[in-house]
Amino acid sequence: MSTPLSELFDLTGRVAIVTGGATGIGRQMADALAEAGADLVLCARDGERCAAAAAELADAHGVRAVGAACDTRDQTQVQAVVDRAVAEFGRIDVLVNNAGTTWAAPPEEMPLTGWQKVIDVNLTGVFLFAQAAGRVMLAQGAGRIVNIASIMAMRGAPAESIDAIAYNASKGGVVTFTQDLACKWASRGVNVNAIAPGWFPSIMSDKVFAERKEVILDRIPLGRFGSESDLKGAIVFLSSSASSFVTGHTLVVDGGQLAQ
């Protein structure tokens, strides 16, 4: 007998960590997880902002939620967030590795400090959180990890569209990391997937939009940027039992840009 659709997507009683979960697409995904019933741990460098966002989501959806300060480059801070999640809720069912940064510069002018910062946040941070939360999931025999990549991981981009080679390279690493970790942990109950968003309004993208909005829109077949709801279905799908036979996959949400 098949499982009812409503049960497949239900996250009631599950616990999700969302890095960078207080703003932008991280907040959108945290909202979706809470709406589906999950309790939340939101973390980012600004702990107060995370705590405020957690309180708002808890009130809106009737779930439990906490916020914590965390620099995803710091293994000690990462472990502290994971330990707090276990202490507060007793388990970790979902990890959304969303925290990220960028550095705009032509490749020939990219400073090493900029390159290292982007790689450390966007790729090493993904590894550190996956490792720490993954240990809990492996002990449970079940879990979902969703890494946030980018369509910039899939192909090169002309300088007039985006000139951020460290960002693009780091997100390519996230895709490969996702595939390999999925193979490593598939037999142990942990599904590992990624989402590759296209262009969504955010603090990170606002400057690019201000300078190159029309150039970017011309390359999106649907003719618009991502909305406040366009990642909600994707994150709930990959975090829930609805995706139990999906692992090692990168789900593209880009308005058709990569189809060209």
Task: Write a concise keyword list for the protein shown above.
seven-stranded parallel sheet, Rossmann fold, alpha/beta, 8 helices
**DSSP helix count?**
8
Approximately what portion of the residues adopt beta-strand conformation? 5-15%
Number of strands: 7
Number of domain units? 1
State the CATH superfamily name: NAD(P)-binding Rossmann-like Domain
Question: What is the CATH class designation?
Answer: Alpha Beta
Shape summary:
globular
Task: Give the proportion of residues in helices.
Answer: 40-55%
- Average residue pLDDT: 95
Per the CATH scheme, the topology name is Rossmann fold
Radius of gyration: 18 Å
Can you describe this structure?
With 260 residues, the chain is an alpha/beta fold. It has a single domain (5-252), classed as Rossmann fold (3-Layer(aba) Sandwich). The protein is 45% helix and 15% strand. The chain has 8 helices and 7 strands; from the N terminus they run H-E-H-E-H-E-H-E-H-E-H-E-H-H-E. The chain has helices at residues 5-8, 24-35, 47-61, 75-89, 112-140, 165-185, 206-217, 232-239; strands spanning 15-19, 39-44, 65-69, 94-97, 143-148, 190-197, 250-253. Strands 3-2-1-4-5-6-7 form a 7-stranded parallel β-sheet, sandwiched between helices. Strand 1 (15-19), helix 2 and strand 2 form a beta-alpha-beta unit. Helix 2 (24-35) runs parallel beside helix 3 (47-61). The longest helix is centred in the middle third of the chain and has 29 residues, at 112-140. The N and C termini lie far apart (41 Å). The relative contact order is 0.15. The model has no long low-confidence stretch (mean pLDDT 95).
